[in-house]
Each structure stands twice: as C-alpha cells, then as structure tokens.
C-alpha cells in the first residue's frame, strides 16, 4: 500500500513540535482554520526538519502527504490477484467432506432424472462479456445451524458496584481511535482527518489511497478505500495526564473524539427545536446512519449521543427505497419513536432523494429529520457547558438491531451497566492494554465490531485500524498488511476474511504476523469456521503466526459475547475439537465419531464464557429444562454483560432475557435469570463451550434437526462448482403440510448451460440425501447478482425466503422433489365394503334418513290436456301461429353495433321453412327420416332451416360452422359430426359453402367426401304440398350433438314428445307468454342454448332478442345494452359471456349508468362527444331484469356470479336476479330458477369429506369449507333422485351420489354411427337396485346431493334444493379419494397473481397442472414451487408435472367449460408450446 515508509516517520520530532501539530490538526478538524492556512502553518513548523527526510526534494513533500493516483492504482493489481476459479472454499469444506460427497454421489451414478423443458426465449442470458460478476462473499453471515448442554462458572470479575461516571473519564483520557478507512469527504474538500492516536499530530491530512470499487455511489457504499494513519504507539498521550504539557493545550486524537462528541451532544440538546420545544429529551432514541467506511464519524455520533444521554440506534445506510429488510428496520425505528437520524455530509448526499431534494421517505420508515454531524454543522458549546453525568445503571445505553429468522427486525437494548461490564470482561478475557493496536475488519456498528473496535478500545486507550468491507473485496490482504505494518497485537476478523486472504496471499513474501498476540475469529461459532482457521494457520504459520493466537469466539445479539478462547498466556486451556456424528446431531444428541466417516461434523471450541458469567444448556422446545451432558441444546448465559430486553416487546423479552432454567425435577438452577443466546451447542471438557449451529438456521424436518450451514457445506462440496457462485448459496426452510421443507437457492453463472446446471442440481440433491438423510424440497438457481444482499455481503436469507414464498425470486432453473421429501401425507383411503341394501331401507328412509328424492310441480295441475295435445308437434304450432297471429314478431337478431340485422314474424318464419323443405325434397331428393346437417352462423336462417327439416320429415342436426382463421382444428369436428350423424345433406350459407370446399379446407379434411351441400341464400319461393306430420310423438325430431368436457363427441336423440315437453316445462317455469320479451346470449348449437334459441319462442309465442356471443368480442356491452333497451324480464347467458362482461365492463359501470336527473337524450349527446371508453355506449338500466340465468352443465361458479351481481348492482340489477341452470346430455334442462319460488340457497360443505364421497355441512369461513349454490329449481314434470354410484341404491338426504332424473323431456338415447348404443343403454333406462325398482331413470353422470330446506315453494311444500358437485367422468381418483378438478384449479389460481387460468388432469398416476401465465416469461419458474405448495397444503396431493403455458392455451367450449381431455391430448402430443415444463421428483 502507499502507506509504507512514510517520510515523516524517519525523523523523531521534538515534543513541542508534535504538540503544535496536534493543536493544528484539531483546529482544522473543528473547522477553526482553513485547509490553506493549515498547510501554511504546518509547512512552517516542519520547515527545518524537511531536508533531513530521506533526501526527498522539499517540493515533493506536499505530494507525499497524498499519494498520486498512479501509485494507488499501481498498488491495486499487485494485491488483487485474480482468484483461480478452481480454488476451493476453505470456509465450507474440508477434504474429508468432499470425499464423503464424492462417495455418496458414486452410489447414484446410474440414476436418471427427467430434465425440465424450457422454451428457448426463457434461456436468454446477457453475454458473458457485458456481465458483472457478483459479489462472491460468504453465504449469509446469519445463516444458522444446530444444538446441546452443561453449567459453567468462570472466575468472577472484580465487581465495581460504585462505578464513577465512566464515559467522560474514559473519552477525555483516551488516546484512541480509529481508522484506516474513512473516505467520506469532509468540509473543505479534503480527506477526513480521522483522530487516530497521538501520531496523527505528525501526519496531518493522512495519506489516503482511493480505490474505486464498482459503480455504486462512492460516498454511501460500504466504503471505497482506505485511509492509512501513521501511528506511533509509544507516543500515546492522554489528555489530563501530566507529561510536562498543559492539559488545556494538549488535545490528542482522544481529545478530539471528546471535543467533537461534546460539540455534538451540545447541538443535539440545545440547538434542535420543534415548535420552540427541544426536539430531543434525555432518553430519546436517535438513528445513526453511517457507511462502513467512516468509523470516525460513527464514534463521534455514538459517544455524542451517550454524552447527551440519548440512545443511539445504529442501522445500515439505505441505498435504495427497496433495500432487503429496509422496511423491517423502518418498523423498528417507528416502534422506538426515532425522529432524528445522524449522518455525514457525504452519506447524506448519496441517499435517495425525493423530488423536493429532501431525503426520500423509505417504505415503512417513520418521518425522520436528518442531521449532518460534520464540524461546520455543529455548534461549539460554551466553555463552562458540561453534559449531565450519568450513572452506569440500568438505563439504556444503546439499541442494536437484530433480524430474526422470519425477517422481522427487533431492537436489543443494552444498559449502561451491561456496556461497561462487557468492556471490562473483554479487556480481561483478551488481555487488552493501553496503546495496543487492534486491526478491525468487522462492521463497527454492531456485534463484536462495536464491542471491541468502538467501546473496549476507547476504554483501554487503544489504537484501532478499521478496514472497510469494500476495501476487503478489492484487496483481501489489506488487514494482514495493516497488522504487519503497524505491528498490531490484536486483530478482529471473520472466517470469510481469513478465507479471502488465503486466496490472495500467493506471491506476497514480506508478510509477517509475528506481532499478533490475539486473532479473534468473530464467527467462530459457525461449524465451518474450523476449516478456515486450520487452513489459515497452515499457510501463515511459516510467516510468524502462532497457533495459540487464533481465538474463536461466540456472540449473539441478546447475550453479546457468549464465550471466547483465551490465549494461553492469559490462562486459557488448550484448544479442543470435536468430531460428531451428523446423524446423532440431527436427533439432538452428541455422538463422537471418526473423521473417516462420511457424515461427520468437526467443530472447534469457542473457549470459555466471559469472567463472572454462568452458562447452561437447555432444551430448545418447551420449558427450559436442563439438557443431559450428551444432548445438544440452547446455550443460556447469566451475566451482567448481556442485553436487557427487546425494545417494546415485553412478552418475548421475558422468555428470552429472563429465562429460569430448571432441573428435571423442576427446581430452578439459579436464583439469577439467564439470557437465551440463540446458539445451539454443549459444554465440553475443561468447561469449553462448543457451538454446532444457530437457532435461526435450524430446520426441523420430521423429528430431526438440520443446520442450514451444514447443508450449504455439503452443496459446496459437490464438484464441479463452475456452474454456480460459491458464496451465493442460501438455505432455509418453508413450512408446507405441517412440516419444514428445505429450500436451497444458488446464483447460477451466466455461462452455465442448462444441462450442466441441471446435472449439478441433481448431484446436490443426491449428496444431501446421502450425507444428511434428508430430502431437499426445492432447489432453485437464479441469475447472477439477483439474490438480495445483506449490508455487508452474504445473502439476506429472510428476504430470499420471502421472495420465494411470494413468487418474486425469478429463478432460471427449478428442481422440486416433493415425492421424495413429503413423507407425512395422510394414508391413502381404503374403500370398505358397503352395507347390504336390506339392512338400509325401511319405508321411505335410508339408513335413518329421508330418501333423497325431489320433483318439480305436477304438469297435470298446471295445464289442460287439450292444449298439451294441440302443442304436441312443433311444426303444427308454427303453422297455427302463422295462421292466427301472422305478424307477431318471434325473433330479433342484433349485430355488434346493437342494430337489428334480421327479424322473423310467425308468418315469415313459416314461409322460409317451407322454402327450405321444398329445396330439400326437390334439389337434395331427401325422404322422411333422412338426417340433415345445418351449418349456419347464429341467426334466423338457422331457425328457418331447422323448421324446414321438420316440415319435410327430415331430422336436423345443428353444427357449429368452422372458424375461417382456424380451419385445421375446427373443420375436422364439423366433418366428424356430419359423418357420425350420417347426414345425407349439408344446409348452409353461400359463404360457408365456399369455405367447406376451399383449398384450405382440403388441407384439413377430404373435401370430396362431403355429402350434398345446399346453400339456402337464394332458394326460390315455393310452398310444400303437404307438411309432414309424424305418425307418433315418439318419432325422432332432431339430434343434439356436442363434445363433452371429457372430449367425447356424443349425439342424443330427441323425440317430438320430449321436445314439446321441454318447451312446456320452460314456459311454465319462466312464465313465458306472447307478450314477453327475453334476451338470449348463448350459442344455438346444442343443449339448452339450442332449445331456447330455436324451440321456445315458437312454442310459447314470446319474442326472443338474439345476441350472438361472438359479437361481444367487439362490443362487450352489447348483451346488457340489449337487455336494457328491450326491457327483458328474463335473460339467459353462459359463463363465458358473464366473465367477458365482468372483466370488460367492471371498471366502467359508472359510464354505462345514466346519472340521476340527467335527461337520456342529453346523456347520449354527451356520450357521443366524450372520449370513447367503450364503443356504442348507452345509458344502461337493468332494473327490468327479474331473472338472469347462466346456462351450464357444471357446478355453479359462485365467485363469478357474485362478482357479476355486485358489479352491475349500480346499473339496477336486482341482487337476487342472477341464478344458474343445470342440464346434461340425458336431459338438457333439469333445473332452472324461473320467476317464482324461493331464492337459491347456499351451503358450505367440508372439502375433505367430499373427497370421501361424503357431505359434511360446516359453517361459513370454516377451514376447508367449500360453498355450493343450488342450481335453480327443479322443472315441472321432472323427478330427481340421488343414487349410489356403485350399488345403484337410493341414498338419504344430504348424501353424495349420482343425480338420476326422470321426466317427459329426457332424451331417448345416444346416437352414434358405431353401434355402441348398447354400452350406454343404462344411461337412459336405469332402475334402482332396491326401493322403487319400477321407475325408469336417466343417469346424468353428475355427483350431487338433495337437501330439504326450511323454505317453502309455490305449492306450500318444503323446498328441496339440488346441489351439483361435479361431473363423475371428470373426477380424479388419486390416493383412493375422489377429487374434483375445479377445486384444485381454484386453489392454484389463488396461488399467484400471474396465474390467469389453470387446468388439471392425470397422466399415468401423476397429477399434471397446466397454468396460464399472465405476465413476463421470467416469472414462469416462480409458479412451480407455489403451485406445488398450494396443492400439497390444501389437497394433500403431490403435483407430478407443472406445465406453464401462454394465455389462451387451455381449450374452453362455448359454454365456458374447460376441455381438460383436449388439453391432455395436446400435452401428450407435445402441441402446447409450453414456456416451461417442470417434472417434480
């Protein structure tokens, strides 16, 4: 470094010159003299000595005080050796451990794991050239570990019961302090002149080497350089100590600390006001915000607060508004009532600013005033002002922050008495003496860095050289060079610093550590510190380092210094090490092992407890019982040197700081309370303390305990390590399914390939499994430099864990292993043999409950039989209406603009139908009973073609036309329906006919095999000679084809009798008359949608306003505008339509509504001129709606219907209007709310009981509760019963079974072209196995239950509610239980805001979850763990495969139902183009 051989040290200066220089230096630091004046006076003082200095030219002396940049930069490369990539991380590994890992991995060689697949775009890395390597500092300094016991008393310290006010005595008399570090700029644009022992009087503005590190703001980061001071220990002068000088004149460095601190104390107490009141009162808390590069200003602030009787709360410098853990620090400041923050000028300039130029308010922080404490900002106190003397009593001296395992930040209060006792105990334990030099690499704001480097050093008038973390990163040898050049007697380091210097020491010959008397290893409690100590000793023993010098110590925020190894000259016992069985440790017991074994942990002792302290080991969980001597437990200390409380947290303070350990018999061990240290360990021979881990790093999996540090060590021993960064590995546990699960996160190098990384991950899993006998739940690799960093390097563990749980980690590789490590799943269900039927049924009771049977109103009571006979055939009804009310409008079709594109009166529809019938008989030469496919867009032409077929005796089959932009997938379905239905002719429009015969169509299907295709656009006006009248009502009227959600194409046969019965039931339920208007927004191709669109208007005579759902894509408000415009009392829609309106109109209901008091015309005029939020908007009023029914063949979607009701309540939609219908293949309309009868009821059932085919009613909000809403009222003429799925016997009320239905409008059977009707015969003609065995039922294939409610229906009877649970075909049989996909999907969609949609299915016993990602592709891998977690937690299922796809990939049918089997086929055929596929192990 540029500090060697300083010319001023060569000549001894007379005492009076040294005194004058010290005074001059003090004047400059106090701001009483300018830089120019200082240099002038200094040059004058030294003029006569300058020629004597090593023959240096006097003109160069100024430059010598501050080395030239070239000198500095030249020094850098020499120390900053590029670290070889193959170098081994000695902190974490030993050769034995590596061999153990290699041996473990050898067992797994043959195992193959499926690699996840990833879309290429996700793999894009920044190029290696443009890449900044991340900080490879240690794995988090706060990573934790394990546990054990004993009791120990050290020689008591001489007690000082009547301690004088010690602070002013010590500071005034101290020649201390600091630092080889401060680069923060001080007033006058010169480097900080740090008070650094008496020798400072010689050096003036100290030589300072400025080393640029990275591009962070130089004034705020953890320090970017080193300020070296020439210290002459033998010149340590003390203010007020007679050495022939006047005390008033001599103010050395110690004096400077005193005067500056005094100045600050005066300013804090007297110059800060708020509303003419002093801002601070004694005892108030003050935040200290100082960078790691400025120990001088920190000490001034710390001691200034102590002098003013204020409580300093040192915290880290917040660099951005989103620093890891910054919000929790803010909560601590708020709870401490902090209103003022002290900082330096340079640091304040580097803080994030608001637009006003003030320091920004950080998230979660209280409002703070910022005070810069550089000299010019402070006021000099009057000569006679002295701070109040404080007693070293129980009052709080300072508060140190501590971050818990969960990420919350608490403040540990340390009293004046504890602070003094700690300093005295450390002085005695370490043998500190006056004028000794201490090199400190630790953070001086907290922990051992504060206790040794700021407090004990001042008490003992020692010299301290502080090395900032940023300098260590640039020059890892800097601390060793300082020890060497200053002949330091003591050094304070961490294992990381020893490890770094090992990597950088090659080629350094002139290094000697023989001056070191004590080398304190502050994190000696970490199990892997022993390897760092051993490796360091091996290298530096030849350079003067003595083995007994290395003194590991154990510290904790609560107990401060717990134990420290004493050098032998201070009477410490010889050091020991313990080789322990890792398996034994995981059960909390000590079992000595041999180093040859694979799974052992070698730990070193951390010496004995501090003088005057007692230590014992207590059980970790439950009451603080003493551990046995071979057990691991939490170390507890009873001493005057510990912290006193968690600030403001009385409850946990009592359990941590006032623990009373008890023996097995329940007797207290001591009458003094003990403090829990958070360290796990045991007491060894010679009363030596051994620490095996920390409570914060403890992970309890099953009954075994594992240390995060041990897992890190194993991961680091897996070779090759060239795919991830060594020091950037985090291990923590997350609770999933009532147990801790281990998660390992590492930063991946940018040049690592996908295959290499996956290989490394697989090997890590195998190594941990073999050595620790525990499974890793999730292993994630993230891009380099993306893990949140702790303030002084390492990984911020709790923040990393938080990001993992919130899905904000953005990994680039994930490997989940739930199958191997989740071992606490409930046992799979074993199905028990059922009770025989005879013992179950008595009269109308089953197993003691009323038989679950219900029916709609009787048709006979509702309608006279003459009318029923007259309306038996729909063609007859149409002819009758055309004759009696020819001009009555039946249909009205709207387009996207809301204008009417076509209408049909009774007579117009009749004539159009006649023309179609004539064309079919003449052009297509079709006969009675031939099948005709109707391929039309939604409209009046489709309805006319349907009745045309009935007029000539043909059987119509409605088919959805192919999508012109998607012929390859939609046209084959059209072709299949035409073939399966054996259609002899296709009726369509000219445009679709051209499409069916186009070149594009030829690529998708064989167009030569189409039957006759007729277009009905220009057929001539012709009458049919005689309209066909079926010989019997049971003749087939039409075929209803649709694709089920399980992907099966099925057609059902509907007779004329069933068709008219269906129309009659709907008419009665909805009170439909010719004077009514209803709005229909459904697809007209199958099920109830077809019946409402084509059949009901003709039968009942009401007017139907037809809104094709496709038109809503260009005008989402079309349906609701139509309902409002035509004042429809009844309207029908599908779930997809409702979802479109909810999403598209949710934010704009206010715009749709006409403001009160505004004329409609004026509002419409405003809309035309207003900015277009939605096209063609009108003032919408939905108060006319009496019932809005969602047509569905599934369990009601309560969340969607409720949000729709809430959203459109503003537009007048009545709260009770929205309801659902239920129908299926065998009967398209079983339930329909209608206009009369009680409102639909909702019950809550236990989802776990449903898996066992049981219904257990629970209260709303109960755990695992699932809301189910009644699917409308049972239609007139319909009977429903609940039957057992296997025995086919009737079930009781509120029992889950298959819904069976009997009604005049049941379909008569399936229609397939392959003669498979017999296979499904029991779907339409099932009989109960006992009870009423005569009635013929149709099986719906849906699970549900009936429940008698307290409500009464229109007939005065108690109302029976039918609840649909889900389709039997879609249920997943897993682990012996029955799961409904929708339940799993609902849980998954809730797991993360980026999940737009989800579908699940099974594939070879594996549960596959397909998730649509509505976000950036980099978020894709976050979802893998979240999806796995939520399904495990809520459904006790292990997800086998997670597939992440783009939005819109999950196929949905026209009713808004997911086509899960289509999706499964696409997955197996590799057609989904997934973003990522994760195979969980």
Spatial order of the strands in the main sheet?
Answer: 14-13-15-16-17-18-21
The overall pLDDT average reads 81
Low-confidence runs (pLDDT<50, min 5 residues)? 1-10, 52-93, 123-167, 173-253, 1166-1177
Q: Which overall shape is indicated by the principal axes computed on the Cα atoms?
A: elongated
In short, what is this structure?
This protein has 1481 residues and is α/β, with parallel strands linked by helices.
Description of the molecule:
It is a single chain. It contains 43 helices and 63 strands. With 1481 residues, the chain is of the alpha/beta class. The strands form 17 sheets. The chain has a seven-stranded mixed sheet, sandwiched between helices. The longest helix has 19 residues, at 754-772. The two termini are 54 Å apart.
Notable features of this structure?
1481 residues, disordered N terminus
Summarize the topology:
Layout lengths: L14 H16 L4 H12 L14 H5 L3 H11 L15 H12 L10 E2 L32 E3 L12 H8 L26 H4 L4 E3 L14 E3 L25 H18 L2 E2 L2 E2 L6 E5 L5 H13 L3 E5 L10 H10 L4 E4 L1 H6 L18 E4 L23 E8 L5 E7 H15 L6 E4 L6 H13 L3 E4 L2 H6 L3 H9 L3 E4 L1 H10 L13 E4 L7 H12 L9 E7 L3 E5 L12 E5 H5 L13 E5 L3 E2 L4 E5 L14 E6 L6 E2 L3 H8 L17 E9 L5 E6 L3 E4 L2 E4 H9 L7 E13 L2 E10 L5 H19 L3 E8 L13 H10 L6 E4 L1 H4 L19 E2 L2 E2 L2 E2 L2 E3 L3 H4 L2 H6 L3 H11 L4 E6 L5 E6 H17 L8 E5 L4 H12 L3 E5 L7 H14 L2 E6 L1 H7 L2 H6 L7 E4 L20 E8 L5 E7 H15 L6 E5 L5 H14 L2 E4 L11 H8 ...
Parallel strand pairs: 7-8, 7-9, 9-10, 13-14, 13-15, 15-16, 16-17, 30-31, 37-46, 39-40, 39-41, 41-42, 45-46, 45-47, 47-48, 48-49, 61-62
Antiparallel strand pairs: 1-63, 2-22, 3-4, 5-6, 11-12, 12-24, 17-18, 18-21, 19-20, 22-23, 23-25, 25-26, 27-28, 29-30, 31-32, 33-34, 34-35, 36-53, 37-38, 43-44, 44-55, 50-51, 50-52, 53-54, 54-56, 56-57, 58-59, 60-61, 62-63
